[in-house]
Amino acid sequence: MDKQLYLSSSPHIHSGQTTDRVMLDVFLSLLPAAGVSVYFFGWPALKVLLLCIFGSIAAEALCQKAMKHPVSVRDGSAAVTGILLALNLPPSSPWWLPLVGVLAAIVIAKQIYGGLGYNPFNPALVARVVLLISFPVHMTAWTTPTPLGSGLDAVSTATPLGEWKTAVMLTGKLPEAAQSGYADYFIGNMSGSLGEMSALALLIGAAYLFWRRILTWHIPVTFLGSVIILTGVFWLVEPGRYPSPLFHMLTGGLILGVFYMATDMVTSPITVKGALIFGLGCGVITVLIRLFGGYPEGVSFAILLMNAATPLIDHYTKPKKFGFVPEKA
Amino acid sequence: MKLKTFPAGIHPPDNKHWSAHLPVEDCSLPQELVVPLSQHIGAPAEVCVEKGDRVGKGQVVGNAKGFVSVPVHASTSGEVIAVEPRLHPTGRALPSVVISADGEDAWSEDLREADPDRLSPDEVRDRIRAAGIVGMGGATFPAHVKLSPPGEKPIDTLILNGVECEPYLTSDHRVMLEETEKVLEGAAILQRLLGAERICIGIEANKPDAIEVMEKACVDRDIEVVPLKVKYPQGAERQLILAITGREVPSGALPMEVGCVVQNVGTAAAIVDAVRHGRPLIERVATVTGTAVRQPKNLRVRIGTSLAHLTEQCGGLAKEPAKIIMGGPMMGQTQLSLEVPVVRGTSGLLLFAEGDVPLRPEGPCIRCGQCVRACPARIMPTTISAYARLDLYDEAEEFGALDCIECGCCTYVCPSTISLVQGIRTAKGAIMAKKRKL
């Protein structure tokens, strides 16, 4: 035995799960949704995707070079932020919009805070909100889907959620479209941002993440559950004014938010109880904004607000240590 | 039937198939035995022989010092050729008695047989202590201490620990299969000593043959065999008590607080030798396994045998070892060389080749929460470890560093390969040192 032996403190084995693999899995799980958006919106969607993904990787590398930190783009977290950001943008985005988004997401929301693991807010959502507030016109220039090979020209239109909100504000009544068209919504044949498109594709990706044990049920169930219950109550009380929970689930960014944004590990609580509270908070705020706020969509704001509450939630949901449970008499 | 278990924990691959089916073989007697004076938790024994003395097998070579301490014994007959510091499994050179075997392997004449039924509880306890019996699962806590509960803490349940939740190890498994009657006799001795009404044997479901053999043997005895769901660290005392009885040992207290005493199955067998035959703990069963060893085996080995000798008994090395581990892969200690002796707590020798050693740089915590969900002590490993790295030990203590059982589940699951339990160990050391100073 001439070789030096490894000496270390136990344990000496590892599960094999790595951050790189987690990021790769999240990226893979988003490919079906990205594919659907390219199918329905064609080249403009692809352009947004490529700009966001490669822009994010480049921005992260440049940032780390500038700060003289080791370049860690190989961990895949920048690519995940990139694809998530793309799914939050409208397909008609001008070329510079994704790049401004990348700047906000990678440089401001992530690297300045210390990089992976240290950002308090979900970088892709920070970028979305920055863009939404700074460039409201570009961010809400929705086009109708023109499936590849259909020969149709894209026409400007409103998203189903926006359409409903405007109608309710103007007339106090639900528009026709909000009561039908669920099948189109489900597969993604509607206007919206890239990732608001296909609930089906997003659910396939989410199923993959559950199977890989990257997602746990806590946040998705409480988030989606609270949205369904709350919107259900309003719908039952006044169905002429409020759309059904199914409409809420299939339109807007709810599915994307529930399975991919709220569940971002870095910005959600690490305790189990905390995750339940976090999901519930996201759901309640989403419904409040959607039903009573000025914006048609509330998912991003809800998640960002709960991101801000995460340290507090973690603080108050510390698990009860072993041996501190009062004995049953 | 739903199997019992405890909350949290992990499911590492058990890798027991290399050795689980192999009957225990007697390891040959080496020429030289190195018997450390410290093989248990508590004060080291005080040496009572000198260089040149002749010793019989089982003769005391070091006396217990204080209550939480046990004597150590010569593992074979021969001559004491040195009393000097030798490399110990802890990685330091510690005082040891070196015996050159005379090949006769003759028992010392001081050993006395006895009928356990006619001994008083104090006599039984004294014989257990005199034999140097310690917890053989690896913790090496002196058995007589656990068996001396104060009068106001009645013990109603005796739990035999046949869980062996560490991957790779199969020594307890083989003891249960091959020494079933002896284990149960040991349980009976302990039950009488403690006045416990109930005896349970906890065995994980990955040892169906052991469960079957024990159930058969317990048919006309008042002993419950409790099959448990496979999960690490079920063999940890507090987790096992929770799994079997539903009782949670209070933080900082001992199992006797909830009326339980836990002993390893190997310890129960050793107690029979001690009480009935007066024979001290000079040998044990250890599993030698891992990819770097040619033929994995379960060996009955004398205390003081070098790991090199053990390896030779298993056909030598198949590959260059990259890591030598005494004990299991989750809580075992890495060794500096194969010259280290087997001690009373050596449940196994694990030889890993280069490819088996996970080597990844630490990444940043991505707050995935897996360590929190896996932690059987229900503390927040990533938070405590982060405080420990900043030398913020008061905060680490506040978050429950001292409740850590060091099972290593957190480090095992961490996708950023952060040395979480190692950080908590550092914090525990610093907190304890500070408490001693106050």
What report would you give on this structure?
The complex is a heterodimer of chains A (329) and B (438). Chain A is mainly α. Chain A has 2 domains: 19-139, no CATH class; 163-313, no CATH class. Chain A is built from 14 helices and 2 strands. In chain A, strands 1-2 form a two-stranded antiparallel sheet. The longest helix of chain A has 24 residues, at 43-66. Chain B has 13 helices and 17 strands. Chain B folds into 3 domains: 25-111 and 280-356, Roll (Ubiquitin-like (UB roll)), CATH 3.10.20.600; 125-277, 3-Layer(aba) Sandwich (Rossmann fold); 370-437, no CATH class. Chain B has 438 residues and is an alpha/beta fold. In chain B, the strands form 4 sheets. Chain B has a 6-stranded mixed β-sheet, sandwiched between helices. Chain B is globular, with a radius of gyration of 21 Å. At the A-B interface, helix 1 of A face strand 15, strand 16, helix 12 and helix 13 of B.
